[in-house]
Each structure stands twice: as C-alpha cells, then as structure tokens.
Amino acid sequence: ALSVRAFAGRALGSTVLRSVLEEAERQVGDEPRLKAVLQIERGWLAYGEQRFEDAAAAHLEAADAIDNEVVRHGCLINAASALMEVGALDRAEALAQRGLRFASAQRLTPQEIRATWLVRSAAYRRGDRLLPDRSLAIASTAVGMPQAAGPILINEAAIAWRAGCRRTAERLARAAVQTLAGEPHRIARLLAQALAVACGHPPEEAEAAEALSEGRSCPSPRVAIQVAGLLARTPTRIRGEAEALARALWPQIPAS
After folding, report:
1. Can you say whether the dihedral through the CA atoms of 65, 70, 76, 77 is positive or negative?
2. Which of 42, 36, 8, 40 has the alpha carbon at shortest distance from 22?
3. Looking at residue 71, what is its pLDDT?
4. Fewest CB atoms less than 10 Å from the CB: which of 29, 125, 172, 249?
C-alpha cells in the first residue's frame, strides 16, 4: 500500500509525496522491508526537489537494507541517476553498469533500458563521441516507461544534436516534449523544447520566445543555463536576450 500511495504522490508532485511519507513514517514501525521502501521514496522526494546527493544517499541506503536483488539493483540505478546530476560521472556509471549487468542477465527490460540510458548519459556528459540510439528511445516508450522515456529521448536528442544529426535531434526532442506532460515534468519538458527549437529548420520565433520566458523562471539554474545557451545559438530575435540570460546564470552554476 505504501508503494502505491507513494507512486501516486510522485506523479502529483513533491508536496503530496512529502505528505504521504510523513504519514507513512508514523505507521511503518520497525518492519525492515517497509523502512527500506520508505527510504526509496525519500530518495525520490529528494530527487524531485533537486537534492541529488541526498537522493543518492537514500537509494544507496535502501539498497544495503533490501534482500530482493531486483529491487536492490533498481536502487543502484536510482542512485546512479542522482549522482549524474552532481557531476559524479564515474561513480554514476559504475553503479549503472552494475545494474545493467544484472538486468541483462535477468532479462529485466525496464531496468536494462534505464541503466543503458545512464551509461550513455555519462559518456555524453564526458564528451565521448556517440551516435543516437533511436532503438533505445523507441524501446523506452514501447515498454510503458513514462518516467524514463522523456529523459531518454532528451539524452538521445542531445547526442544527435552534438553529432550533427539535427533532424533526428528535433524529432527526438519533440517526442520528449509530448512524453513529458504535466507539471512534475515541467523542467525537463522546457529543456526538450529548447533543444527542439535549436534544431528547427528554421526555428520558430514564437516558440523560442516562449522557451526563453520559461527559462527565466526556471527554478533549476543548471537547466535554465542550458536552455539559454541553446536559444542563444539560434538565428532568432531573442538570441541576444538568451545570451544575456546565460551570462547572468553562469555564476550560479557550481564548479562540479
């Protein structure tokens, strides 16, 4: 029951999830399995609030406490996703590789897809030369993984963009925009929209202006500066404003 309620809370945002977890803390008691599930959900709450180090720590603690190998390796993959956001690429990739080996051996397709995405994300962020894996993007939507499909589509779109495959990048980015519906996915959807605009032939002026406006109010400086940087590379009227926003955001970005 706790897992079901927490999953629903995740879909409705951090305020609802926090309320669910506060109520669960009063009811769990000393049952190890329920305490581990609660720790997993604390990890998801921290991730949603962009407290990525706390999220990684919570998922790793849950992994140590859980006997079920499938859930344990899922926690390792969750921790890898959080570590990726603080620039701990090597550690994130190592955890993702552990999850990938287990998922491949056990034929756990959802975990295998997520782990593959994280391994490729680490490689992309390191600057490795990659080509887009459209089959991975298709698989993430085909197996019914709405939470993972959007980020996977964005990552493969970014890989395509860097590789010079702009039409492929635009198609993947627009697929991500459609996948990332709802308020909980607003930040990721904004990044996908900016990438789609940057790849447009030609870019849409109205859409560029909308993305810039959203970027100004984005609560994540890391995402906002990426949005501004993408828009600053477009031949649009808001190009100069986007460049100015990127410069203003730069001091807010941690060195890591």
Report:
1. negative
2. 42
3. 94
4. 29
Determine what percent of the chain is predicted with pLDDT higher than 90: 67
Alpha-carbon separation of residue 149 from 113, 215, 230 (angstroms): 9, 22, 22
pLDDT tens sequence across 10-54: 555 566 666 766 666 666 667 778 788 888 888 988 988 889 999
Cα separation, 174 vs 153, in Å, equals 9
How is 224-238 classified by DSSP, letter by letter? HHHHHHHHHTSSSTT
Half-sphere exposure of 242 (CA within 13 A, CB side): 26
Is this model's pTM higher than 0.90 or not?
no
Backbone angles phi, psi at 133, to 5 degrees: -110, 90
Least confident of 36-40, 79-83, 124-128, 132-136: 36-40
Q: CA 252 to CA 256: how far, in whole Å?
A: 12
Q: Do 24 and 6 contact (CB within 8 A), yes or no? A: yes
Residue found by looking up tokens 């009811």 in the block: 27
Average pLDDT over residues 99-124: 96
